[in-house]
Specification:
The chain is of the alpha+beta class. The protein is 45% helix and 22% strand.
């Protein structure tokens, strides 16, 4: 069955739109990877060094995994402490807890073996990263630090 000229042009337009979407998605992924390498990862690993230096926590007691707050520390008493690292500047979404983080932290706060969950803000000044003292998150104040 032969396609009419209008069908061919409709198919061609759709192909162009699909290609544009694919390029946009690739650029977005590239930007996310760049942000991870240049800001997110260094700030989290920098705070690991800060914990080791200021609170004398051994590195083998600090864990860094997706799906939970950025850092997990096993205290000497065997309880867990969590740290979510957020920038002071940037978009509101980057500065605040997202809905998934808020729900995860609420669930963590229910468990008796969780000592505390903290929010740590940081600011880049040249090559130096400056961390604010941790803000202890509770069921009553978590909404203040999330955008949901």
């Amino acid at each position: 069955m032969k396609k009419t000229k209008s069908e061919k042009s409709r198919i061609a337009r759709k192909a162009v739109e699909t290609k544009k979407k694919r390029i946009k998605r690739a650029k977005s992924q590239e930007a996310g990877q760049k942000a991870w390498k240049e800001t997110i990862r260094p700030s989290e690993y920098g705070y690991i060094n800060e914990l080791v230096r200021t609170q004398k926590i051994r590195r083998n007691r600090i864990f860094h995994h997706e799906g939970i707050p950025d850092l997990m520390v096993i205290s000497e008493n065997g309880k867990l402490r969590f740290y979510e690292i957020k920038p002071k500047k940037g978009s509101l979404k980057r500065q605040m807890l997202n809905p998934k983080q808020k729900e995860t932290i609420k669930e963590l706060l229910k468990h008796k073996h969780i000592e505390e969950v903290n929010l740590v803000r940081y600011e880049k000044k040249g090559r130096q990263t400056i961390y604010d003292p941790p803000i202890r998150l509770t069921k009553s104040n978590i909404s203040r630090y999330s955008y949901s």
